Amino acid sequence: MPTLTALERRSLRAKAHHLHPVVAIGTHGLTPAVLHEIDVALKAHELIKIRVWSDVRSDREALLDEICRTLDCAPVQHLGKLLIVWRRNPELHREVAKPAPTPARTPAKRRVPLASDQRRADGAARSRLAPPSGAPRAPSRRRRGDATVEMRSNDDQSRRRRRRAH
Q1: Of the candidates 83, 68, 74, the residue with the CA atom closest to the CA atom of residue 4
Q2: For a surface tag, which of 51, 52, 110, 157 has the fewest beta carbons within 10 Å of its beta carbon?
């Protein structure tokens, strides 16, 4: 059974905070099937939470010790009816081959200014939103052309006002 330092346990508790229990130990106790499921979960995740439905604290502590002895994992925390255990999985920490170094990059070319980037003759900077001179303007959104807008009845308007008030 591996031992953890206080700093390692603190770090693992922080990582386990957001985890949900993946295995539950019920009324039948720690059966071989439950041990197998814990082993599978440890291989997949390294750090897991186990929910124990027993109300007796000493029983839960005994279960934690037995799990750690049987599966060679380290106890991280016993928090109420939750047990947190950890076992290092070397397959999850395999060294990934480093990619070949990239060739040296050539310096970026200078940007050639466009006609729209040039300054006005009076020296003031052009707005980026303003279209270049001579370009047609987009129609205003307020113009509706020949479309007619139907007026709502007073009942609809008063209903909307009541909704806003609440």
Answers
A1: 74
A2: 110
What's the chain's length in residues? 166
The rounded distance, in Å, linking the Cα atoms of 141 and 147 is 13
Can you read off the two tokens belonging to residue 33?
């099937």
**Of 36, 31, 13, the residue nearest 82 (C-alpha):** 13
Domains of the chain with CATH codes = 6-87 (3.30.110.60)
**Can you give 55-99 as a three-state secondary structure string?**
CCHHHHHHHHHHHHHHHCCEEEEEECCEEEEECCCHHHHCCCCCC
pLDDT in tens, 69-104: 999 999 999 999 999 999 998 888 777 666 767 777
| Residue-by-residue DSSP string for 21-48 | P-EEE-TT-S-HHHHHHHHHHHHHHSEE
* pTM: predicted TM-score of the whole model, two decimal places: 0.56
What gap in Å lies between CA 41 and CA 67, rounded to an integer? 13
Q: For the segment 22-57, what is each residue's pLDDT rounded down to a tens digit?
A: 999 998 999 999 999 999 999 999 999 999 999 999
- Residue written as token pair 């480093």: 98
